[in-house]
């Protein structure tokens, strides 16, 4: 079961910052999940469209110039990173799950992937792009068929694995409160990976191992790894 650092090692460090990502790498995470919005054709790494919870700014990301957003304090002196900075930091070290939020992310992402291929030698297959917006994922699939795509859901829909398999996506990303054995089994029978968010508690980690999920998003990568290693199935 892979350990995916949710917003970096966000349990102990400011979420979605380069510091949290560096710490997740130090903690031996298999992958890192980040949340991304488009502002002025740049992709920035932050979870909420509102600035108050995680930065010293106020209002929404769309009310401000990019230059203002990038100088805010995102905790412990960290800045809101760009996706380009995160790609540079993680390339060759772990795989990256880019969760697309907000609007107008497709074009800047495709442009950034081209830049990353040219300048870093990044293979799009090293990335997993996910979203609750499945229209957006389809758009990306048409533009870049090599991209691995993950369909996020916050509910337990009927025939969800079949639906995602028919879209020819790579994975289902489900809420820990809804995942069950039949969904995991259906996903695997259809050749899909099953990832679950957000899994921090001992009982949940063990339950996910029991279900045979492929990976968990956790805010505490090192601790979750230890808990999982104590309960190998
Ligand atoms: O990608 C998994 C998880 O991060 C989805 O929910 O709100 O934490 O971005 P959220
Ligand atoms: Mg997320």
TrEMBL record:
It comes from the Bacteria. Residues 1-228 form the GP-PDE domain. This is Glycerophosphodiester phosphodiesterase family protein. InterPro entries: GP_PDE_dom, PLC-like_Pdiesterase_TIM-brl.
């Amino acid at each position: 079961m892979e350990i995916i650092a949710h917003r970096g090692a966000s349990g102990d460090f400011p979420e979605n910052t380069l510091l949290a990502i560096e710490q997740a790498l130090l903690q031996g995470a298999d992958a890192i999940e980040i949340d991304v919005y488009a502002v002025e054709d740049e992709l920035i790494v932050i979870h909420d469209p509102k600035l108050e919870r995680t930065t010293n700014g106020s209002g929404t990301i769309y009310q401000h110039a990019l230059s203002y957003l990038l100088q805010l304090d995102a905790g412990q002196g960290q800045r809101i990173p760009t996706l380009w900075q995160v790609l540079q930091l993680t390339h060759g070290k772990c795989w990256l799950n880019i969760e697309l939020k907000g609007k107008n992310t497709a074009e800047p992402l495709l442009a950034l992937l081209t830049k990353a291929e040219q300048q870093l030698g990044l293979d799009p297959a090293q990335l997993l792009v996910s979203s609750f917006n499945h229209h957006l994922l389809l758009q990306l699939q048409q533009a870049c068929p090599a991209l691995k795509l993950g369909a996020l859901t916050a509910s337990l829909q009927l025939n969800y694995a079949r639906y995602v398999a028919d879209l020819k996506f790579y994975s289902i990303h489900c809420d820990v409160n809804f995942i069950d054995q039949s969904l995991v089994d259906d996903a695997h029978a259809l050749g899909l990976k099953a990832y679950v968010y957000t899994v921090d508690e001992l009982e949940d980690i063990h339950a996910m191992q029991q279900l045979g999920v492929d990976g968990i998003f956790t805010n505490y990568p090192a601790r979750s790894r230890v808990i999982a290693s104590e309960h190998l199935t």
